[in-house]
Amino acid sequence: MCLEWAGDQDWDRIKGYAKEHGPEVLLWSRVSKLLLGGEMGVESVLTTASQYGSVEMVKLILDAGFDNKEAMYSAADLSMRKSDNSTILRLLLEHGLDPNMDLRIEGVMKCSSNLLVLATGRGHIDNAIALLDHGANVNKVMVDRDGEVASPLEIAMGYGAHDIFRLFLARGAIATTNDVDNLLSICFEACKGERPKLSRDVAIKMFATFLHLGKPDSDVVQDKFNSYLPSIRDPTITNITKHYLQGRPFCCFVCEALTAKSRNKLLICPCRTVAYCSKECQIKHWKKHKVLCTGPLNERGESEAMVKKRPKTGKGMKGGGADVGVAEGADVGVAEGADVGVAEGADVGVAEGAGAKGKNGKKGKKGKKGRGKKK
Ligand SMILES: [Zn+2]
Ligand SMILES: [Zn+2]
User: Fold this and answer.
1) Which residues have C-beta within 8 Å of that of residue 368, sequence separation ≥ 6?
2) Ligand 1 centroid, distance to 282 Cα (angstroms)
3) Could you say which DSSP state residue 34 is in?
4) Which of 75, 93, 120, 347 could form a disulfide with 134 if both were Cys (CB 3.0 to 4.6 A apart)?
């Protein structure tokens, strides 16, 4: 009965009924096929209230002691479908909903995802943050109907949800070998226009973010990259990858932009380990970088500190002291004249020697076997 009233959003009537007959009347639930787009779900006043976004009702029901976990999962799902407002989701989590619950594994319905995946698929970052705040595992993979495994990172990439992707990396997502492979594959597909939900532009930005924040193992990146035929590799992705593997800056250290705001080239700090898209980003980062910045390098690629450390053999160490002394004087604006805008590291987007050949030495023979690679 209450359920019918809930369908009509007649919350006052339900409240009155609960007052008269005790709050237990709010706890009723049953498994139903009607919910969740034809999937099995659990029907209850709670799920309906969540679906319609009635925070007050949800709170009332939870406070009455509602604890059917499957219904709470369904309620969370429905609330997340509606919007990125995480109020109801947070209430559910505070009342015992397990953020890592997987409804398929629990055997209630054949849904293949967990809540974090659902939030990601909808591009709802607020929901995702709520889940992570309550202990959702950012590395928990989901297994779909065909037994394919996908990580939250991969799903965020597939949906082009850049902000959520960045959030996951910031919250400790660790890129597995599988991730590196899948993300590359998704990027290459997107670059060829084969991904309706992911444009080439966004794919490239996300890939830069991935390397910058995720810091995947270089050997794995190299190996997986090489496993794609040169004809499949996008030149920009190739460039970014190349620079990453060589330890060169490839994007703005702060905002992950690939080019400087006013010019094409990134502004590289004289120490040549970080680059920025703008003075603003550089200033933002300077407090942290100051500690690590070695100042300008001499023509041998040595910093002042390295020169000082070098065993003194008397003469023959030209170029040592030369342009030293910047490190301290540098405070904020570092790179003023110096190397700003040099950035050989930065000509992202050009096509140049795209293929794996640019990868000098290291890869030797094993590189070339490029197979077509899964699709
Ligand atoms: Zn920037
Ligand atoms: Zn520096």
Assistant:
1) 226, 356
2) 7
3) S
4) 93
Element housing 17 (H / E)? helix 11-21
Are 355 and 233 spatial neighbours (Cβ–Cβ below 8 Å)?
Answer: yes
Higher pLDDT, 145 or 183: 183
* C-alpha to C-alpha distances, 127 to 4, 118, 134, 168, nearest whole angstrom: 28, 9, 11, 13
Closest ligand to Cα 284:
1
Cα distances (angstroms) measured from residue 330 to each of 102, 139, 156, 268:
52, 40, 39, 14
Residue 283 Cα to ligand 1 midpoint, Å, equals 10
Find the 153 Cα to ligand 1 centroid distance in Å.
Answer: 22
Least confident of 73-77, 275-279, 329-333: 329-333
Q: How far is the CA of 93 from the centre of ligand 2 (A)?
A: 43
Ligand nearest to the CA of 251: 1
Distance 173 CA to ligand 1 centre (A): 22
Alpha carbon 48 to chain centroid distance?
A: 32
The gap between the terminal CA atoms of the chain, to the nearest Å, is 51
Counting ligands in written order, the one closest to the CA of 273 is 2
Q: What is the DSSP string of 266-306?
A: PEEPTTSS-EESSHHHHHHHHHHHHHH------TTS--HHH
Burial class, 313, CB count within 10 angstroms (exposed 0-12 / middle 13-18 / buried 19+) = exposed
CA of 347 to the centre of ligand 2 (A): 19
More confident of the two residues 190 and 324: 190
